[in-house]
Design brief:
Keywords: Cytoplasm, Nucleus, Protein transport, Signal, Transport. With 462 residues, the protein is an all-alpha fold. The chain has two domains: 290 residues; 171 residues, no CATH class. It is built from 20 helices and two strands. Strands 1-2 form a two-stranded antiparallel ribbon. The longest helix has 26 residues.
Length: 462
């Protein structure tokens, strides 16, 4: 414990009112900030206590008092982490059980404080987090084989970025994005999260669980960065500082995607986080898909196909939104003479003569199969329509071929006639045009709803 005690600060009363009703609360805050007794609490209680004490700052008379209180509350944690990270023999010291315990404890506390961020206390919590960013990178390297500490480091960053990102000015955002880029690079360079295929089944299951937690944290971090493009109170764009959020998200996608297997997507929380991020990234940065290498691109296609047939309605909805984003991006880009998704949208034969269908053709076929012959929630019809319209506009000849195939398979003349008329009405009735605007999406939703009522019943009974 000696190292920690060296980093402890002398007792400093926190800036609470001296009125007697606050005495017990002030004593608790001072004990938290300056004494060792409360460090015996378990991790969840450490985090909860820190969050509660941080939230209490909102009740102070001025924002200056609130921010000063938070700095006093956390100064000992920051001092210790900075001091430890600067030790020349950190690699040896860090592995001592008591040091691992202290670092874990303080990360839980910082995570609790980060989770309490509000506009009134945002400035102080930003400064608190920013002051330990370099130690976080150093500890990630030192503890790369300690999965528990790695996870706590990632979760602290996730909570801190989540609470801060929408409030930050462009220069601050650039610093945070740069840090996240370095964090992702470090995580990747040390092969953290990758699992040897030679592990036994029992060990692999345990390792999968650890990897699942890390990957979910990284997905949450990328989602938090993406949120800056939705809600941003900054007075100038981040690009003014030579930083682009899409670039760190793009790199993060390359790092995280290959680690996510279909087995890992069986974890509901990871599955939800992954498809939520994927749909959001493709909606905000659809041009990124054409920059992905073949491996990452193919992997995303496989997961999208998996998610499209998932039992969770929300996961399917995320995938449909992703498909809408891809197809509408390609259609609009091609409409102004650009390449859109480029080669990813084109079908081709590989050197062995094997045919590979383009992404849009593949998902047009898959989505029609889902809508006509498979089970799904009726709540998904609107999202499916929004994805299907740009897919049809991009692949009109394929749609016509698929429509003809469906009609040709009908031996009952009455059914054949009904299906022919319904397929034609789907793409022409209700004054439907080739525009991808709100009105046209609404028209196509109505068309698809009527189409499914008309044909789905008899198609599934044949």
């Amino acid at each position: 414990m000696g190292l920690f005690e060296e980093g402890m600060l002398s007792l400093t009363l926190l800036p609470w009112s001296v009125a007697s009703p606050c005495d017990s609360w002030r004593d608790l805050a001072n004990a938290f900030a300056n004494e060792r007794a409360l460090l015996s609490l378990n991790a969840a209680h450490q985090r909860s206590l820190a969050q509660t004490l941080a939230v209490s700052a909102l009740g102070m008379k001025t924002s200056e008092a609130s921010n000063q209180y938070l700095k006093s509350l956390t100064s000992h944690m920051i001092a210790y982490m900075v001091e430890l990270s600067n030790k020349n023999d950190l690699k040896t010291i860090a592995q001592q059980p008591d040091i691992i315990l202290w670092v874990s404890c303080l990360l839980e506390r910082l995570r609790g404080v980060a989770s309490a961020s509000e506009s009134r206390t945002q400035k102080a919590i930003y400064e608190i987090g920013f002051s330990v960013l370099n130690p976080v990178l150093i500890f990630l390297q030192a503890y790369r084989d300690e999965s528990t500490v790695v996870y706590l480091l990632l979760k602290f960053v996730v909570n801190w970025v989540e609470g801060q990102i929408i409030y930050l000015e462009a220069q601050e955002t650039a610093a945070v994005v740069d840090f996240c880029m370095r964090l992702l690079q470090l995580y990747s360079s040390h092969n953290i999260g990758k699992i040897s295929i030679n592990l036994s089944n029992s060990l692999r299951s345990e390792a999968d669980t650890e990897k699942y937690k890390d990957l979910r944290a990284l997905l949450q971090l990328l989602s938090n960065l993406c949120s800056k493009d939705l809600v941003d109170f900054a007075s100038e764009p981040i690009e003014a500082y030579g930083t682009n959020i899409s670039q760190v998200v793009y790199m993060g996608l390359h790092i995280v995607t290959p680690l996510i297997t279909l087995d890992l997507l069986k974890y509901p929380k990871l599955c939800h986080s992954y498809f939520s991020l994927l749909s959001h990234m493709l909606e905000v940065y659809p041009e990124m898909i054409s920059q992905l290498n073949i491996e990452a691109f193919s992997h995303i296609l496989g997961t999208l196909d998996f998610g499209l047939h998932h039992q969770d309605v929300e996961v399917v909805d995320f995938c449909l939104r992703a498909l809408k984003a891809l197809a509408s991006h390609h259609y609009k880009e091609r409409g102004v003479g650009k390449v859109g998704l480029g080669s990813h949208a084109s079908s081709y034969k590989d050197p062995d003569g094997k045919f590979h269908e383009g992404i849009l053709s593949r998902f047009l076929r898959s989505l029609l199969q889902l809508l006509l012959f498979e089970d799904y929630s009726s709540d998904l019809v609107s999202s499916a329509a929004d994805a299907l319209l740009p897919l049809i506009l991009c692949e009109q000849s394929l749609y016509q071929n698929l429509a003809n195939e469906l009609v040709e398979r009908q031996v009952n003349q009455s059914f054949r006639s009904r299906l022919t008329n319904a397929l034609q009405s789907l793409i022409s009735s209700n004054n439907l045009t080739s525009a991808l605007d709100r009105i046209n999406y609404q028209r196509f939703r109505k068309n698809l709803h009527n189409f499914l009522i008309e044909v789905r019943g008899f198609l599934r009974t044949l």
